[in-house]
């Protein structure tokens, strides 16, 4: 195993497991600045995780095993997703393969267990959130698969290592297919991270929540695990955006060195997007994502035309 | 008597399943080979062995379940005998090596379930449903006869003669087989018999119909389209893939809005048949483009999903049967809390639901991943039009998987979780040993097939009629993919979950009531099936055209009663088939005027016919 590949594995594990909460922290921090508030420090998510970790859990009456296992299982699925997504074009195998289409199944598992837990609580508000989350997930999954299909077809493999290598350089400027894939993926990033205009992470009104809704009943370490899972979701989609859909270096060392910089810039972009847009009506979100799906289809069409 | 009979049959099916697996592993052919003659011949090759193994794996637990499920008495005894005959006919279609045996088995495989439904229920609804079932499968099923007889006439039953690519004969056989066998498999738009007939049969019969019978139709499709006809023109592959995408998305969307558990499961059978047909379509397109290795992978993906669906769908139907017995209802809004009351059956049902939703580390995930891979290789194989069709099918399959998650979260939530919704559900007790061990066995099969699909996949790739091979592993490591180490996935997911559960520890405060904005938690506030799917219904409003009626009764300006009813119409049936049936009936009414019943009229018809024939012969039109 070469030094670069070891370094890449180290960045992937440390970044995905430990530094992921920094990403939503950064977004919140900059969003506050852009809105003229001082806001919390980027380290705020860590403080919340520590506070939650020290609190005890309150189980709602009548809940069972599914409710109790759900946070651990959702966090475990996201952890597997972190193991799946490499941060550079070279990395050792971590036991779960490197296939981009497997990612879809892991993310779906996390959604399933959280929604099942809502049914166990039988709280109408959590269920409304879960139902909206799963409804939007339909168009997110279709758009996600099409967006990564563009990159996979361009690179000739669905292995993420191959895709990172195959899209290296500034292909996104010169190749319309990848640019259209990037548009689609940008919408996936917004939906998966639960940002405006798809969802409003700051809302505390049960009737408007999407991603926060299913977490209503959870407390203590359960909530900490679920919040970490949400942060890990940020890490996964932003790393994919950086190393697949944005211009990135050919050399592995440079890919690793530039990753933090680009991630910080992307968090700034998310904060700016959140500040500039308002939450759209929930029923319009699938249409927005459908625009992404059509863009990715056009990307595939342009690849096919180039190929002949 | 009934019990013993069914147990003997179950043991026989278990032996059949083991023999099937051994024959598949051995890779030889046994018995006769295909012939176009009329004398009955039977034989087993790799594909037959695989489907026989599936029949045994699903059939043995199902019949063991039936031995406790069917009530002793004349009805139970009749069904027990008919089930044996049904299984025999399924095996007959699989082993038939001549056209007549094949077609005879095919017809009886359709008729015996109709008899079983009529034995178990004789009310008007059941009779009407059976009529629709038999009418649809026979009208459209005529395609099977045409296809098989045309193939036998050309000497191509069994693929002996090579039919020229793109010839009229090849296209005629392909299209008639697609209509005839597609109807029997439940492919949209000719699916309308399936969600009617499957739910009203007794649970073990539904399990066999959804689990195995429609898979035997898939067997026919694979034999004709992939094996006997050689390389088909591209556009047939495009049609097949479009039908697959329509069935997958359409099946799951209509399943979401069903309130009867077995009807919901029947619509999911259409969805899964759609996924299988997507694999077959990808295979045809890739083969037409000359990408033989991936065509074989696509075929193996379709076959693996066939087996997986057989296992989890029969598990779910049997589980539904147990719930109906214990909780007295199949309305998903009238169950609830059954996981606590029926932990074994409920746990197995939960595994089946996770598997059908395509979630790791279970078997549905492995075969859906393979089908996605096959579809992504359709655009990779070149060609603009078919490439785009492949890309759209890819998106359709991804959306289908997400919709299946939505649907089965709802089913699991309403049936297994939360507080019981009726007194009967609260009083439910665990099913008898024979019934729960059957579902547990099938749940075990879901886990094993999910952890080690590669062991079977290597063998299935070898079943393609052209040369293709892949190294046999536990996981799925295909060239040009990142690989799917299924065992690694299972270990990572379960290990991390266990570690996090241990980390979380047991610091639990006293339980508290659920927070619903300060209100009391009342049964009326609980979300229903219709409520959970409302966002999706609104998103798809323009496509689904849901109908709803709200009636408010007021007295002296005070609202006394509000009643709400909503339904999702089956657009294909109401807009296409119902007018067609009306048209046919109107035609029949006109034709009836010809039948006066008077002898003189009929003599006049005969004289007219003779005159017309004579004139035609005289002018040289005939003869």
Q: Quickly give the structural class of chain A.
A: mainly alpha
Tell me the β content of chain A: under 5%
Most extensive contact: A-B, 92 and 87 residues
Q: H/E series of chain A, N to C?
A: HHHEHHHHHHHHH
Largest sheet of chain B: 2 strands, antiparallel
Strand count, sense and barrel status of the largest sheet of chain A are: none
- Proportion of helical residues of chain B: 55-70%
Cα(first) to Cα(last) distance of chain B is: 64 Å
Shape of chain A: globular
Number of domains of chain A: 1
- Counting DSSP E segments of at least 2 residues, the number of strands of chain A comes to 1
Radius of gyration of chain B: 26 Å
Report the β-strand fraction of chain B as a percent range: under 5%
**SSE run of chain B:** HEEHHHHHHHHHHHHHHHHHHHEHHHEEHH
> What strand order characterises the main sheet of chain B?
1-2
What does the average pLDDT of chain A come to? 89
In short:
The complex is a heterodimer of chains A (308) and B (623). Chain A has helices at residues 3-19, 22-34, 44-54, 65-84, 100-121, 124-155, 160-166, 171-174, 176-192, 220-245, 252-276, 285-307; one strand at 57-60.
State the main characteristics:
heterodimer, A: 308 residues, mainly alpha, 12 helices, 70% helix, B: 623 residues, two-stranded antiparallel sheet, two-stranded antiparallel ribbon, 25 helices, globular
Structural summary, described in words:
The complex is a heterodimer of chains A (308) and B (623). Chain A contains 12 helices and 1 strand, in the order αααβααααααααα. By secondary structure, chain A is an all-alpha fold. Chain A has one domain (3-307). In chain A, helix 3 (44-54) runs antiparallel to helix 10. The radius of gyration of chain A is 19 Å and the shape is globular. The termini of chain A are far apart. The mean pLDDT of chain A is 89. Chain B has 25 helices and 5 strands. In chain B, the strands form 2 sheets. In chain B, strands 1-2 form a two-stranded antiparallel sheet. The model of chain B has no long low-confidence stretch (mean pLDDT 89). Chain B is globular, with a radius of gyration of 26 Å. Chain B is 70% helix and 4% strand. In chain B, helix 1 (2-26) packs antiparallel against helix 2 (46-69). With 623 residues, chain B is mostly helical. The N and C termini of chain B lie far apart (64 Å). At the A-B interface, strand 1, helix 4, helix 5, helix 6 and helix 7 of A face helix 15, helix 16, helix 20, strand 3 and helix 22 of B.
